[in-house]
Amino acid sequence: MTDAKQDEVDPNAPVAGMDFFMQLEYHELLCPVVREFADALMDKRLIGHRCPQCGLVYSPPRGYCPICVVPTTKADEIELATRGIVTNYTVVTPVQYYGQEETEPFAKVSLQLDGGGNLSLQDLLEVPVEQVHPGMRVEVVWAPDSERKVDDITNRSWGTAEGAIQGWKPTGEPDASPDDYSDKVF
Amino acid sequence: MQERLTTHTIEFPYTRTLGPVYSAFLTGMRDGQVLGIKSRDGRVLCPPTEWDPTTGDALDGDLVPVGPGGVVTTWAWVTEPSRKHPLDHPFAFALIKLDGADTGLLHVVDAGGIDSMQTGMRVVPRWKQERIGHITDLEAFVPEGSK
Ligand SMILES: [Zn+2]
Q1: Residues 6 or more apart in contact with residue A32 via CB below 8 angstroms
Q2: Is A134 helix (H, G, I), strand (E, B) or coil?
């Protein structure tokens, strides 16, 4: 971190501080269900598992339904729509801490996909942050074939996949009625 | 199906204030001079400590120049340096008792090969051109007469 003030420090002044840089890098294999999710993203498909008992859809798939406490398998895999409704949002105003690359406020939205399934922490494109609101109808914008990657997906991912999904853009259709999502906001 | 490996990096950068003793020691490093500190019984400790190791009394007196050369008192050869090590080729971590000091400074000896390492060998510092006030301003010690 450099700023103008530090640059003006007298090079002959006593050394008053010492920078430490702790870094821990580790690697993990994606577990099978998340790996299938990642492979599908590379094919521009969103997949999830539908619980055979309660019908809730999990994307990325977890391999179980935590509510029913039952396993889900390949037999429960479904392909999700890549269109949906904004159910909730957060505007993040970046603080310039170490490692922060964003400088301008941006929105992260929760989505209810058409036909079932929810994603959170998605990027909303083409919409000024002050115009973001629940009910907006959006569709996926995939990263270009040559740039698409899934390196940022982890076994604890919540469906964020910034290397594969650039974000979601408005379809231009009228807003959904609150009745369509009011009991599904998260 | 192809395995997928994911990489995580956790970083925690911070700055530590140094206090009078370490500030003087690292200012010396920046200026190309290794400094030690006198303990209550008259020994010279290098690296300097803020406390007398025998009595526990605070040491805040003037630091004294030591070296530049010294003697390797013990060492370990690093055959395959990691990317976090100070040199990118095989080297020794060594305790070096600098001339005028009574304790050993843990540092690096760039000896070329393990066959050039010997307990009791004399070494001299090789300083970096650009120094910032860090222990690594002294890039490595090298066998005396090898430069
Ligand atoms: Zn269930």
Answers
A1: A63, B1
A2: coil
Q: Strand A106-113 and strand A83-92: pairing?
A: antiparallel
Instruction: Calculate how close chain A gets to B141, using CA atoms only, in Å.
Output: 22
Pick from B68, B75, B84: nearest CA to B115? B75
Asked if the ipTM is above 0.85, the reply is no
Q: Per the omega criterion (within 30 degrees of 0), is the bond before A134 cis?
A: no
Interatomic CA distance for residues A126 and A104, integer angstroms: 14
Residue-wise pLDDT tens digits, B62-115: 899 999 999 999 999 999 999 889 999 999 999 999 999 999 999 999 999 999
Task: Write down the pLDDT at residue A157.
Answer: 72
Q: What are phi and psi of B25, to 5 degrees?
A: -60, -45
Residue A123 has pLDDT above 50, yes or no: yes
In which order are the strands placed within the sheet that holds A118-123? A118-123, A106-113, A83-92, A137-142, A165-170
Contact flag B26-A29 (C-beta cutoff 8 Å): no
What is the Cα–Cα distance from A34 to B5, expressed in whole angstroms?
11
Preceding amide of A178 cis, omega within 30: no
Cβ-defined contact of B6 to A151 (cutoff 8 Å)? yes
Interior angle at CA A8, CA A6 and CA A11, nearest 5 = 95
Say if residues B142 and B111 touch (Cβ distance below 8 Å). yes
Q: What is the DSSP string of chain B?
A: ----EEEEEEEEEEEEE-HHHHHHHHHHHHTT--EEEE-TTS-EESS--SB-TTT--B--S-EEE--SSEEEEEEEEESS--TTSS-SS-EEEEEEEETT-SSPEEEEE--SSGGG--TT-EEEEEE-SS--SSGGGEEEEEETT--
Q: Which B positions 46-105 lie with beta carbon below 8 A of chain A?
A: none
pTM over 0.90? The answer is: no
pLDDT at residue A5 above 70?
A: no
Share of chain B above pLDDT 90, in %: 80
